[in-house]
User: Fold this.
Amino acid sequence: MTRRSKQSEAADRLGVRAEAGAWCWIGEIPRPPADILQAAGDPRTRPAQRPPLAMTGSVLAAPFLPILWLLMLARAEEAMERFLDTKEEKERHRAKKEDERRRDAAVEQRGLDNVFDGDWNGAAGQFLLRWYSHSTHHERLLFAGQDGLVFTAPPRRVSMGRDKRAQVVARLSPEEATLEDPFGGEFETEIMLIRFRDGSWLRVDTEQARSELHMHALRNTS
Assistant:
């Protein structure tokens, strides 16, 4: 079963009317001020630790380290081939690198290298405080549609079967927040913003650049 069909199956199972969906995650939540944390009921601000099965998998992966060396050699070979590229190919490569530099500069200039806008009293900050109270899993399967945004995830962190175990953990109506590609499609990135009505925002990163969520946001940009 493909990734998209798994997500569609999860949406159907949960009764979510979605026009687009993708797995995403947030960056590390900065330490909130003590008074803000206390007022919110001292919520957790980190995901649960990796399950033992996942850690065991890391240990079992050790014998495959030689494969990593082969991958490194492949990259070295790719670099050599790039050195031998034609003038046109080198120009395309330079243009791509320049586009990446402009993208990174835009991310930093707009403060998008942070997980949210920084105002803990704003709607985004308050929603962020409850992020891991909704679920201790480190990812969210986020659906977008006419009914707004629906966040689903396993109630607790898992190493396998995230789609089958996903449950609705939070909702945001269209009156509360919208989904936004902060670059309006100019750059192909994983970055999405949840823009709240008070102007505050929360950054989420999708598994794939220019995901279904990006395309949905661009289609619905007024």
Observations:
- Residues 74 and 96 are 21 Å apart (CA to CA).
- The chain has a mean pLDDT of 88.
